[in-house]
Amino acid sequence: MKSLVLALAAVFALAACTEETQVTMYKEGAYKGKPDQLPWNNAPPPYGMAKWDKGDKTSWEQQLGQRVMAQNESVRIEHR
Fold first, then answer.
1. Pick from 52, 54, 46: nearest CA to 67
2. For residues 77 and 80, what is the distance between their CA atoms, to the nearest angstrom?
3. Which of 3, 57, 63, 80 has the maximum number of C-beta atoms within 10 A of its C-beta?
């Protein structure tokens, strides 16, 4: 009886070690998703304070810098 319990425990322990590989399977043909674009080639969102000219990298970088500074606690908190 004791050897049967040990054998079952060994089978369950070894079964936990057998993991199948997880691979995404696509259907026939090429990827049909949206192609990636540069971030400054996208239009700014219709909501919020983000404003940059579509396709202008420098205005996008300036807007990104303003957003980062708005999240900086040293700038946001009023010092006395």
1. 52
2. 10
3. 63
Tokens of 18: 């057998």
Within 8 A by CB and 6+ apart from 76, the residues are: 70
Burial label for 52, CB within 10 Å (0-12, 13-18, 19+), is buried
Q: What is the pTM assigned to this prediction?
A: 0.48
Report pLDDT digits (tens) over 36-78: 888 888 888 888 777 888 888 998 899 888 888 888 887 767 7
**8 Å CB contact between 63 and 51:** yes
The string of DSSP codes covering 41-78 is: GSPPPSSSS----TT-HHHHHHHHHHHHHHT-HHHHSP
Q: What is the dihedral of CA 48, 54, 55, 60, to 10 degrees?
A: -20
Size (the chain), residues: 80
Largest Cα separation within the chain, whole Å, is 79
